[in-house]
Amino acid sequence: xxxxxxxxxxxxxxxxxxxxxxxxxxxxxxxxxxxxxxxxxxxxxxxxxxxxxxxxxxxxxxxxxxxxxxxxxxxxxxxxxxxxx
Length: 85
Description:
The protein has about 80 residues and is mainly alpha-helical. The chain has 3 helices and no strands.
């Protein structure tokens, strides 16, 4: 995994995290990095949900989450975060 891949992951995570924050009511005091981390974790949760719905391709143990599943996963993480704090 190269440096460019990490930067691209954080940028996509920022977009996913920002969309999740827009959809969940309430005010969260998260900076850019934490919003990006929310999106990345949401993508992982979305990939897990996707693998439960349909198994990953033959020979792969990872199910890539699309934008919709990533946002749904980020919303789940954000709601859980709100209830824990």
